[in-house]
Amino acid sequence: MSLDGAFLRCIVREMHERKLIGARVDKIHQPSRDEIIITLRTFGGTEKVLLSAESMSARVCITSQAPENPQQPPMFCMLMRKALGGGRLTGISQDGLERIINFDFECTNEIGDLCENRIAAEIMGKYSNIILMTRKDGVWRVVDSIKRVTDDVSSVRRVLPNVIYELPPREERMSLPDCDIQQTVAKVSECGGRLVKALMSTFEGISPIFARECAYSAARDADALVSDLTPDRCEKLVFFLNRSREHIESFDGCTMVSDKTGKPKDFCFVPIEQYGAEMVETHFESPSELVDRFFGERATADRVKQRSGDLLKTIMTIYERLSRKLEAQKQELRDCARKEQSKLTGDLLSANLWRCEKGMSELTAEDYVNGGEVTIKLDVRLTPSQNAQKYYSEYKKLDTAEKLLTKFIAQGEKELAYIDSVFDAASRVGSGVGSEAAIYEIKQELMASGYIRSAKTERNAKAPKAAPPLKFRSSDGFEILVGRNNTQNDKLTLKTALPEDMWLHTQNIPGSHVIIRADGGNITDSTIVEAAQLAATCSKGRSGTKIPVDYTLARYVKKPNGAKPGMVIFTNNKTILVDPDEGLLDKLAIK
């Protein structure tokens, strides 16, 4: 990975230069499952240190980001607050160029005694971890970790509460800041194969991009072989490694390369020349700023994906529960079909009471409705009259149940349609601006509707800034607004839209409300088509073709009393068939 031990050395140096040593722990948050943010109070203000054990974006840096925190802090976060709250940071260290950074704290335990605690941030790809330790009897013992490592996971090293902390297995390799580079290059030249592989097996804590840059600097070829190293090229390699060591020891900036679209691709603590004009270079004075920029967008996307995944799972559980309940009600309604038979049996029994005696178990009588004879079951404990009343009571019970079940089933089908619309909104949550707020709004909508309970901490928690509706501009210049969820759909249709604006929605398909702002002009047909395509794309029918979309003026859209969020009725509408177009979202989006 690009965040190698050498780059981490630059980050550790930056933390020392920004005078984090001596700072007090102010706040600790855990915005996602594998991320910790520690806010430190220094003499010059506050600094936030981000520790991430995400397999694809593991990192340690000073961050300026302020991600949304969960309403209920995870257990590991609460443990960190208990162990480190109010503590003083006494040291930040790294052993050689190992991808492990230790943060030492002087804290106060439950009984008021001073104690030493440590956080070890291990940045090792899928094996990354954040480990909280305390010093007891001269050794570091694990208090807990963000990822527990049991014997089933690793037979080499356990990371569990109360075990003695052990460093990960370490290969014998040279440390670039400490070794004799002339002798080390001579050792590299004795290897075979690709130069990049030889360098990475010789030096510890260097990334593939740095090894390729070494090869490019020496041989002008990032894929050069060791056998290509002439004495002149060896001298160039020695010169480049010495200059790189100076970059590590006296940091003077770092470089990130992006493709032509601006998407970050790689970074290093030295200038990157191997890509030539294929990539765009960006120089950063702060290594933490680079790491924050490089991983920030990806981390936000992962965090939103994780939370939206949990939300989708919750919605699916609600949907399945309602579906089972609805199916049971429909089965009960089918059973009510025998009510007329119960009434007929009561009538036949009443007409033949003169033939009955108490204690009879059955009566054979003529069926004057359907013809022939019918055998009626009797309760031997009841009189003939009581048996007749029993059948009449059964008829009344089934008749009442049929009326109630018909009403409940209609309500249940509306609930299913509503939950389906909520699921569609949650499934379309992206990773851009407002995504985390959109997830929060959907959760609040479900809480307000009584489908999920709100924790005590959530009731008093500060709500994130409301997510704005998606905004687009049609080819003819009309502004188009698209709701992100049912709550926003209601606001958009009933409060934002003016009477002369155009309202669109997919016909009988869950999706977003779409508004075309007229602004005093006549809305063109091409704008209606584009808005209809946006409505189809932002709906459950986005994977289909020929999606029917209803449209009418906003003045003809009303919300019935007691209707669920997003549910409206409308009149004077027309329908258009369109194909969803994902590309239109980017093409018409207002940046």
How would you characterize the overall build of this protein?
The chain starts with a helix and ends with a helix. The strands form 6 sheets. It has a 6-stranded antiparallel β-sheet with strand order 15-16-18-17-19-22. A hairpin with a 2-residue loop joins strand 8 and strand 9 (139-145). Helices cover 38% and strands 21% of the residues. It is elongated, with a radius of gyration of 35 Å. It has helices spanning 5-17, 75-84, 181-189, 195-202, 208-219, 231-249, 287-335, 339-351, 384-427, 435-448, 456-459, 486-496, 525-537, 582-588, and strands at 24-32, 35-42, 45-52, 59-63, 88-94, 100-108, 114-122, 129-136, 139-145, 254-258, 264-268, 280-284, 362-366, 373-377, 470-473, 479-482, 502-506, 514-516, 547-553, 557-558, 569-570, 574-578. The chain has 4 domains: 5-145, Roll (ibrinogen binding protein from staphylococcus aureus fold); 181-285, no CATH class; 311-458, Orthogonal Bundle (Helix Hairpins), CATH 1.10.287; 470-588, no CATH class. The longest helix is centred in the middle third of the chain and has 49 residues, at 287-335. The relative contact order is 0.07. It is of the alpha+beta class. The model has no long low-confidence stretch (mean pLDDT 88). It has 14 helices and 22 strands.
